[in-house]
Amino acid sequence: MKSFHTESNSHATTLVQHLLSTHRRLHVLEGAESSNATAEKDGVDDLIMLLASIAVAVKSVGSAVRRRDITHGSGTESEPLERLANETWIDCLLYSQRSCILVSEDLENPVVVESNMQGKFAVVFDPLTGRSYPPCQEMGAIFGVFRQMSGGSPVIEDVMQPGRQMVAAGYALYGACTVLFLSLGSGVHGFTLDPALNEFILTHENVRIPYCGHIYSINEGYCSLWKPEIRELISRFKTEVSLNGKERSLRYVGSMVADVHRTLLYGGIFMYFAHQQWPNGKLKLLYEASPLAFIIEQAGGKASTGLERILDITPESVHDRIQVVIGSYEDVELVEQLFKGPSRSDPMYLLRRSHSIEEMKDSKEESTSFNKDEDGPTILCSTLPRLVQ
């Protein structure tokens, strides 16, 4: 007699099955900028093996997080887990024999794989995020994969690439369950770890981030250190409706991967601006901002510094920091207007932003959130100062 669990999972798709069934469509290998004219025949198979090794690392670290109950521990207790997570990721990547150079958030310098274990991919990763003191309950991991640019021995330039040249990126989240979301350049798919099978099962296929949202995520503890225009922006977020007609709501977990995960599923925006303590921004470009920007853009969202697209930035060092504005396409564009001014190439830009406000006017009494133009009619923008024509 079959158990309920067996019946309910008889048609489940595992991570490896999903990758194998779609490998013919993984055209990103051929499209990636490489010194080779075409990707080698087994390039996709090697990438699948690499991602399978990353999945093993995620399972191992997730088990360690739960087993040690680190989410309720003190700062001193987290240090062994940090080392364990970093060593686990490096070991899994080394023994996959598909990587050539590794960059970890926990190591000052890149790790060059020995020649007898080398592959053709450069991997960047943060093995354990959300481990501030006290540690966040939503820990996770972030990773990105590049094709090796150099022809011979791996060099630092193999990882010093803009995020748009990634062939794969993803993140893991350790909470009530362990989830793994990844993209290979043709959409975003989410997998949940089935503890009975110890396999990642496809649970979120072709994830699309909502075009706009009402949730914004930012650490307001740094408010006094922000520039005046950023304080004004957040003030407007608190008092004015979002583009979907709902009142905005603040949600901030304290772990970037957890906040971005919520933003991916429900829409909205995650922001971490530069300030006096971190004049260039705090988040690391290579293995935090770029992989998550890759995921968000593949899901239909947008990722920016407020001035330029994150995936177009080439790092100058492996631990470069930047500020981040990431989330629903329309919400990120709104913030960009504060930094760059209106989009003159899109004459309908402001009109689209007035639509939800007009709907709110029809369904609710006029609020002080809406400022009438005393000099004549104009188009209102929900979160930015009215632009003078």
Summarize the structure in short.
The chain has helices spanning 4-8, 15-21, 28-31, 43-68, 75-96, 228-239, 256-266, 285-298, 329-340, 349-363; strands spanning 99-104, 111-112, 121-129, 139-147, 166-174, 178-183, 188-194, 199-204, 215-217, 249-250, 269-272, 283-284, 302-304, 321-322, 324-327. The chain has 389 residues and is α+β, with helices and mostly antiparallel strands.
* Rg, nearest Å: 22 Å
- What portion of residues is helical? 25-40%
Question: How would you write the strand order of the largest sheet?
Answer: 2-1-3-4-5-6-7-8
Structural class, by secondary structure, is alpha+beta
The pLDDT mean sits at: 81
Biggest sheet overview: 8 strands, mixed
Distance between the termini: 73 Å
Task: Please supply descriptive tags for the structure shown above.
single chain; 389 residues; alpha+beta; eight-stranded mixed β-sheet; five-stranded mixed β-sheet; disordered C terminus
Can you describe this structure?
With 389 residues, this protein is α+β, with helices and mostly antiparallel strands. It contains ten helices and 15 strands. It has helices at 4-8, 15-21, 28-31, 43-68, 75-96, 228-239, 256-266, 285-298, 329-340, 349-363; strands at 99-104, 111-112, 121-129, 139-147, 166-174, 178-183, 188-194, 199-204, 215-217, 249-250, 269-272, 283-284, 302-304, 321-322, 324-327. The strands form three sheets. It has an eight-stranded mixed beta sheet, with helices on both faces. α4 (43-68) packs antiparallel against α5 (75-96). It is globular and about 60 Å long.
